[in-house]
Amino acid sequence: MTIQATWLPSQGTSVCNLTTGSASWQADLDASAGGDTRYPNPHELLDSALAACTTLTLQLYAKRKGYAVTGIHVSVNHEEANGTYTLKREVRVTGELAPAVLDDLLRVANRCPVHKTLSGQLAIETTIS
């Protein structure tokens, strides 16, 4: 799947339009750079990918295992210091769950596809025309 990002000066804003062809969303600059806080900035989009993937992965796993999960809440924020982007993720799972089940869910959270991608080797190839 390819994600397309588009911006045109005629829009009169700095909002970037994003699409996969079937889904659409928007992003903007940080508020400190004049962006509109009604839209996520690029770092918020990155952080949200980890939060969403963790939540969805745990949801699928809990259903498959028959765990009595009544809710999953994942929060992600980040810190940038000395060239390191540190994602801080907090996972809260509600329900009547034994400590061993919570340990199992933590193990699965750390194996969600976006977590594995972000903690592995990344390469970006860019062309311009």
Describe the SSE topology.
Blueprint (H helix, E strand, L loop, with lengths): L3 E3 L9 E4 L4 E4 L14 H24 L3 E13 L2 E12 L3 H11 L3 H6 L11
What does this structure look like?
The protein has 2 domains: 4-33, no CATH class; 42-118, K homology (KH) domain (GMP Synthetase, Chain A, domain 3), CATH 3.30.300.20. A 3-stranded antiparallel sheet has the order 1-2-3, with no helix packed on it. Strands 4-5 form a two-stranded antiparallel ribbon. The two termini are 21 Å apart. It has 3 helices and 5 strands, in the order E-E-E-H-E-E-H-H. It has 129 residues and is of the alpha+beta class.
Concise structural overview:
The chain has 129 residues and is α+β, with helices and mostly antiparallel strands. The protein is built from 3 helices and 5 strands; from the N terminus they run E-E-E-H-E-E-H-H.
